[in-house]
Amino acid sequence: MSKQILAPMPGKINSIIVAAGAEVLAKQELFIMESMKMEMPIVAPVAGTVDQIQVSEGQSVDKDTVLATIV
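Given the sequence above, the corresponding structure tokens read:
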């Protein structure tokens, strides 16, 4: 079963820390997102393999935009 990583609020993707195919642990940082002039880490909710990254650095996203999928 795959798990989608969603943007918690509108903002901009400042940094992508992992690549597609990477093995990640639960609570490992995947992205750094900027929103309301604050940077926040976006972490993996589960352990697994990053299947797809659907955003790029510098991209603006809306709330609930799919950032990545973990399988």
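The mean pLDDT is 96. Try to locate this feature in the token string yourself.
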